[in-house]
């Protein structure tokens, strides 16, 4: 059973966003990291890159597959999780503590189009 955190917003492509004020922390869900298996590389954008909701911003590679990362929100990347460069497996250990990018949101209301925890749980069939 996948860990699903209350208070986050979830995309059908299995990314989440944690909204804190004008910022959003974007990562992949526990379900996604289970499906991928052991993560060996995270391809992240650069600080100051723009991300658009529904558009890819990087990729996660595992021993099984590579998967595009689709941004659940739009905005400007203000920070990337540098720890993932040396230790991509942190995404497997705790995907919610180990977000991938921090975004200054251009429109926080976009999160309302995403699923809450209960809807995501139903979406993945748990």
Give a verbal description of the structure.
This protein has one domain (9-107): Beta Barrel (OB fold (Dihydrolipoamide Acetyltransferase, E2P)), CATH 2.40.50.100. It has a 6-stranded antiparallel β-sheet with strand order 1-2-3-9-8-5. The chain has a 3-stranded antiparallel β-sheet with strand order 4-6-7. It is α+β, with helices and mostly antiparallel strands and 126 residues long. It is globular. The longest helix has 7 residues, at 30-36. It has 4 helices and 9 strands. The model has no long low-confidence stretch (mean pLDDT 97).
Quick structural summary:
With 126 residues, this protein is of the alpha+beta class. The chain has four helices and nine strands, in the order βββαβββββααβα.
Walk me through the topology:
Blueprint: E1 9-10, E2 15-20, E3 23-28, H1 30-36, E4 39-43, E5 50-51, E6 56-62, E7 66-70, E8 75-80, H2 83-86, H3 90-93, E9 101-105, H4 117-123
Antiparallel strand pairs: 1-2, 2-3, 3-9, 4-6, 5-8, 6-7, 8-9
Bulk shape? globular
Neighbour order of strands in the largest sheet? 1-2-3-9-8-5
Extended strand count: 9
Mind describing the biggest β-sheet? 6 strands, antiparallel
What is the H level of CATH, i.e. the homologous superfamily? RNA polymerase II/Efflux pump adaptor protein, barrel-sandwich hybrid domain
Structural class: alpha+beta
- What is the terminal-to-terminal distance? 7 Å
